[in-house]
Write a structure and sequence with these properties.
Strand order of the largest sheet: 1-2
Order of helices and strands: HHEEHHHHHHHHHHHHHHHHHHHH
Helix content: over 70%
Number of helices: 22
Shape: globular
Number of strands: 2
């Protein structure tokens, strides 16, 4: 466990090396990024092997940083943070493998990427509220540049919207932390603030909770603060989409669980029902929107909002079972969403240069890209919560825990699972196994598309007549094969989803003790 802080330092040092190396060799920058991500993940896995679950955080580093304000460089970990650290290492490694094709300003791309990863590691290890906030902000800034510089559809708009929403939420969190500190805690240590918050008045608890929880909930994609998420996902390059859905959205949910709920439990009790119904609206509403999307990436973007709704519902249910399921869902969704975005963004879009489902319908992609079709079917089944994959124990645990608090919540959430099955099966069928359907306005003629045509399509060029090249099923020779890095990345993510689906206790044995600390027990006072 003592080596866990090195994940932060490795990431930032790797970012600097990748930036310098990228000026001379894109290949060297890639290998530096991969080595850095693998090394960080290796440190986490080594710590996980020797981890002994206990109730409460285990201190790693605690030194004064700004003594006059009571700010410490305080890093600590428990089973909850370790679960998300494992997810971060896996997502970082897989994202680099799916970014092996980046050729434009490669060093800068991986420098921003690794800086984001370093910020995420810092958030999950911080036990000082201000340090938590600083790493939280560090993780936000690289997202903007990754999307604005290497994104696709409306990338500048998507990057700016994401940044504005994120910083607005962060401002609320900072206001809450400063207000809470002004009321008396001797330091910004999370444990010190929780001890002092017991003496806050009920109105103070309610106000502080509202600022902190809903500030974090913006990044978690809670309805109605979710609108940045689909836009950001669609605009982002593949690796950034994988991190955005797989890891960064978890920062918001983690902040709700680690900061807002245990520090201000009275405020949480006041807003508990409101949070639950906002989460349920997000589950069903985002699922219904995903069901009618024609842009493949928007389908996955809205599905992420829907699945994050289960995380927020688990937190709102506020009993040991539901919250442990919420943390397990954070891990599960991080793996599955990352895999879905990898297929849609890298395997499909980078080869066909279209995300329109009606255009993909005509291609019979299961013939052209059989590996991509197989991976998406597996990821889709996992996303639907099929037994044998990580989504099943996560969602089942949340539903059972939610039922204990309110049967109505569980019933509405179950409806969301049906909607998820509908939009997932539709996406699988239309994108990979569909055929041209003239009655619905689909392509009626299939025309070969050679490599020159594919290049012209990707560059937005048109024929002399003014119409773009037709994308047809006979373009098989124009589609590059799935590369080895992509196959390895997909296998890593599938293996994680299957392993936790079959053995969820591997993570639950860490998570449950982490929720039994005195501070977390106060946060779970609203469950039955």
């Amino acid at each position: 466990m003592s080596a866990l802080p090195s994940t932060i330092y490795l990431s930032f040092f790797g970012a600097l090396l990748a930036l310098v190396a990228g000026k001379r060799s894109a290949s060297v920058a890639r290998w530096i990024a991969l080595a850095t991500a693998v090394a960080g993940w290796g440190v986490v896995l080594s710590a996980a092997i020797h981890f002994r679950p206990a109730a409460g955080l285990q201190d790693l580093v605690d030194v004064p940083w700004v003594p006059t304000m009571g700010i410490h460089y305080h890093l600590a970990a428990d089973g909850i943070s370790l679960t998300l650290l494992v997810l971060t290492g896996l997502a970082a490694t897989a994202g680099i493998l799916f970014s092996w094709n980046i050729t434009e300003r490669t060093g800068e791309f991986f420098a921003f990427y690794l800086a984001l990863i370093g910020g995420v590691y810092g958030v999950f290890l911080s036990a000082d509220a201000i340090l938590f906030f600083i790493f939280y902000e560090i993780a936000i800034v690289p997202k903007y540049f990754l999307i604005a510089n290497w994104g696709s559809t409306n990338r500048e708009y998507g990057a700016m919207k994401l940044a504005i929403y994120s910083f607005a939420g962060s401002a609320l969190v900072l206001a809450a932390l400063l207000w809470a500190h002004a009321l008396g805690p001797p330091s910004f240590s999370v444990s010190d603030m929780a001890a002092a918050a017991v003496h806050f008045t009920r109105p103070e608890q309610i106000g502080l909770f509202a600022l902190s929880f809903f500030g974090f909930a913006v990044l978690a994609g809670l309805f109605p603060f979710h609108t940045w998420a689909p836009t950001g996902h669609v605009a982002a390059p593949t690796a950034a989409s994988m991190l955005l859905a797989g890891v960064v959205m978890k920062l918001g949910a983690y902040g709700c669980l680690r900061i807002a709920m245990p520090l201000f439990p009275v405020g949480f009790m006041f807003f508990q029902t409101t949070i639950a119904w906002l989460a349920l609206i997000g589950i069903v509403y985002a699922g219904l929107v995903a069901l009618v999307q024609d842009d493949f990436k928007f389908v996955i973007g809205y599905s992420s909002v829907s699945h994050m709704g289960f995380v927020m519902l688990g937190l709102a249910a506020a009993n040991l079972q539901a919250v442990s399921g919420a943390v397990l869902q954070m891990f599960s969704h991080g793996v599955i969403a990352g895999l879905l975005f990898a297929v849609v963004g890298r395997m499909v879009y980078d080869r066909t240069h279209t995300r329109k489902l009606e255009e993909l319908r005509a291609m019979s992609l299961y013939k052209l890209l059989p590996f991509a079709a197989l991976v998406f079917v597996v990821a889709g089944l996992a996303s639907m919560g099929m037994p044998g994959f990580s989504g099943f124990p996560a969602e089942l645990t949340i539903l059972v825990g939610a039922w204990k608090t309110s049967p109505a919540w569980a019933a509405v959430a179950a409806l969301g699972i049906l909607v998820a099955a509908a939009f997932t099966l539709r996406a699988i069928h239309v994108a990979f196994f569909g055929q041209s359907n003239p009655a619905r306005g689909g392509p009626t003629s299939l025309e070969p598309l050679d490599r020159l045509g594919a290049l012209s399509l990707s560059n937005g060029l048109r024929r002399p007549g003014g119409t773009p090249p037709t994308v047809g099923a006979s373009m098989a020779h124009a589609l590059p094969p799935i590369t080895l890095p992509e196959r390895v990345g997909a296998i890593l993510l599938i293996a994680a989803a299957v392993l936790i689906g079959l053995k969820p206790d591997l993570l639950l044995n860490w998570i449950v003790p982490g929720l039994q600390s005195p501070m977390m027990t106060a946060a779970l006072g609203g469950g039955k």
